[in-house]
Write a structure and sequence with these properties.
The complex is a heterodimer of chains A (about 425) and B (about 120).
Chain A lengths: L1 E9 L3 H12 L5 E4 L15 E3 L8 E2 H14 L3 E3 L3 E5 L4 E6 L3 E12 L3 E3 L15 E3 H9 L8 E5 L3 H12 L3 E7 L8 H8 L6 E3 L1 E8 L3 E8 L12 E4 L2 E4 L3 E3 L2 H5 L24 E3 L10 H19 L8 E7 L3 E5 L2 E4 L5 E8 L3 E10 L2 E11 L5 E6 L7 E8 L1
Parallel strand pairs in A: 1-2, 1-8, 2-5, 8-19, 10-17, 11-12, 11-17, 12-13, 20-27
Antiparallel strand pairs in A: 3-4, 6-7, 7-8, 9-18, 14-15, 15-16, 20-22, 21-23, 23-26, 24-25, 24-27
Helix pairs in contact in A: 1-2, 1-7, 3-4, 4-5
Chain B lengths: L1 E5 L8 E7 L2 E6 L4 H12 L2 E2 L2 E7 L5 E6 L3 E2 L3 H10 L1 E3 L7 E3 L9 E3 L12
Parallel strand pairs in B: 5-8
Antiparallel strand pairs in B: 1-2, 2-3, 4-7, 5-6, 6-10, 9-10
Classes of the chains: A alpha/beta (about 425), B alpha+beta (about 120).
The complex binds flavin-adenine dinucleotide and iron/sulfur cluster.
The site of flavin-adenine dinucleotide has 38 residues of chain A, from helix 1, strand 3, strand 6, helix 3 and helix 4.
């Protein structure tokens, strides 16, 4: 049996929840939200620390509290959602196949789709650390789920590889639960996470941060017994003679997130090799008409508030399309991430209206103090903004006006002043 | 004494140099605005943190429920508060915002649930 729906949203993390609420409030009655887990909320369920919602609610909420504000709205608005429902395939015609234990296989035909599947963590396989294969090696997020949801202690002493926010948050969490964190090793010469987390998660608990260090060997039989760490040079190659043995029974990996885009690829959506997410225009529409993307499935976010804002934007665009208000653009403009810029979202601007203000999110490719971000088109500068400092860990945005764009290409660059 | 610190009160993230003696701030430089001084004072003289953790649950949908201190507590009292959190155990059902431990270690805050928790077997409909 095929069920027809105006809008199907895949994933019920903050992105899916915020998109569902916005679409329902804009008059779409048959929004359907699909979630493979047995609760709404996505990754926020296990992020029990504070720091969520500062921009939107002007309050520092924990992950579960942030999620529950949206979940309450979803229920109040009577939005239709299905738990334990995993989407297993999707095609270009927006036919979505899902399975759940009650109904078995169900197919939905959607007018529009919002992708909000989030991301998963990079595991040891992606790192190729030599040595044995004992138990005790987890991704930081898996350890987070063990501790915060299942109430378990996964070991006694830990070494954390990677100083992204998840790694830092977990360092503190293990310390609070009475486990010993020997160090957080970061291969880059600067930390990957937010400054606030360096202070409140590491310095508060006297946990050393070893920059330019990585794990070069894993030791142990059944259970992890220790790891060898070493300093790396500018090319990130371990320096012989700098090896140190660290005894530990847990190794937590916080070495990056990968957007979950298997379904998107299947539907023929073009993926940006840098973000790992879909290539989108400013309305967050992917290369397949009527399919939109937001949240961590589009690019990795560090602030949930931006996830929700992005999701509302995707929902607004989808609603316009469903109500037949979508227009054809006058021209399509390519945004190139030039020197100093790792990526931008959107990657494409569709030119509809000369007065449109277009928000472009970006991350710098390196740490740049006292810098300047410029946008040029046809060799002419059309925008400049100064920054005290740019770091890859913190997403920034600029706003340009459509009428300033003359050609079909703009380049965004960052450099030291 | 001197300390280099980055203000985290706004996204600018000013790099500040703070000179202080005992519990007195002598000079702050590099701050982009007044809030930077206040931040330096708070961090050096009386750092406060919201503590988040989990408390054991009896008969709940999950074995633990996430909690936080209702207001920030002195950083130096985090572990005494944690001692009370380790010992606690509460019965489901639990409401979001419910006080689970009153003023642990005399920290001036209560430990409250940050998630509602149904009894075992009941499922979110
Ligand atoms: C450890 C950690 C700490 C963080 N700390 C902060 C912080 O302090 N402050 C802050 O603002 N932000 C923080 N963030 C970032 C923020 O939480 C995330 O960016 C945000 O949760 C991403 O939301 P999302 O909806 O895109 O993805 P998710 O929350 O991952 O949700 C995706 C959902 O999609 C579902 N799904 C995936 N595939 C399918 C499928 N095929 N079928 C059905 N369902 C599917 C998943 O089950 C999941 O529920 C943190 C993130 C992590 C991991
Ligand atoms: S000193 Fe002022 S401008 Fe600088 S980071 Fe702090 S709050 Fe922002």
């Amino acid at each position: 049996m095929i069920e027809n729906r105006s809008l199907v949203i895949i994933g019920s993390g903050p992105a899916g929840l915020a998109a569902a609420v916005r679409a329902r409030k804009s008059g779409i009655d048959d929004v359907l939200l699909l979630e493979r887990e047995d609760q709404l909320g996505g990754i926020l369920k296990q992020c029990i620390h504070t720091g969520f919602g500062v921009k939107i609610f002007k309050e520092e909420l924990t992950g579960p509290e942030f999620a529950s504000r949206y979940i309450r709205k979803v229920k109040e608005l009577g939005i239709d959602y299905r738990l334990d429902t995993m989407v297993i395939s999707m095609d270009e015609g927006k036919n979505i196949t899902a399975v759940n234990p009650r109904d078995g296989l169900v197919v939905y035909k959607a007018e529009c789709v919002i992708l909000a599947m989030g991301c998963r963590e990079r595991a040891r396989g992606a790192l190729r650390i030599p040595g044995t294969n004992p138990s005790g090696i987890f991704t930081a997020g898996t350890a987070q789920k063990f501790v915060n949801i299942e109430g378990m202690k996964p070991g006694k002493t830990a070494l954390i590889l990677g100083s992204g926010d998840i790694g830092l948050i977990m360092a503190r969490r293990l310390a609070l639960e009475g486990m010993k964190v020997k160090a957080v090793c970061e291969i880059m010469p600067y930390p990957g996470g937010l400054e606030r987390n360096i202070i409140q998660c590491l310095e508060d608990f006297d946990i050393p941060l070893r920059l330019s260090h990585t794990v070069v060997r894993i030791h142990g039989g059944h259970r992890l017994e220790g790891v060898t760490i070493a300093r790396v040079d500018e090319l990130l190659k371990p320096v012989p003679g700098t090896e140190e043995y660290v005894k530990c029974d847990m190794l937590l990996l916080s070495v990056g997130l990968i957007p979950e885009n298997e379904l998107s690829r299947e539907a023929g959506i073009i993926i940006d090799p840098v973000t790992g997410g879909a290539i989108v225009n400013q309305n967050l529409e992917t290369s397949v008409e009527g399919i939109f993307a937001c949240g961590n499935v589009l690019h990795v976010h560090d602030l949930v508030d931006y996830v929700a804002i992005e999701a509302e934007r995707a929902a607004k665009s989808a609603v316009e399309k469903i109500k037949g208000k979508g227009k054809d653009p006058k021209k399509r403009i390519q945004i190139t991430a030039g020197n100093g810029i790792r990526y931008t979202v959107p990657q494409i601007i569709d030119y509809y209206d000369e007065n449109e203000k277009i928000k472009i999110y970006f991350r710098s490719s390196d740490k740049l103090d006292e810098s300047r971000v410029t946008v040029t088109c046809k060799g002419k500068n059309i925008y400049t903004k100064k920054y005290k400092r740019l770091i890859p860990a913190e997403m920034e945005y600029i706003k340009i006006t459509a009428s300033d764009i003359k050609g079909r290409k703009v380049i965004i660059e960052a450099e030291k002043r | 004494m001197k300390k280099e610190m980055i203000c985290i009160r706004c996204p600018k993230g000013c790099r500040m140099n703070v000179e202080y003696e005992n519990e007195k701030i002598i000079r702050v430089t590099g701050n982009g605005c007044k809030k930077g001084e206040a931040y330096a004072f708070d961090e050096i003289v009386k750092p406060m943190r919201i503590v988040t953790s989990t408390v054991r649950v009896v008969g709940g949908r999950l074995p633990v429920v996430p909690v936080k201190t209702s207001i920030p507590v002195r950083r130096s009292i985090i572990f005494p508060v944690m001692q009370e959190i380790y010992k606690a155990s509460v019965k489901a059902p639990i409401k979001e915002g419910q006080v689970l431990i009153k003023n642990p270690a005399d920290c001036g805050a209560d430990v409250v649930a940050t998630l509602g928790m149904e009894k075992t077997g009941t499922k979110d409909d």
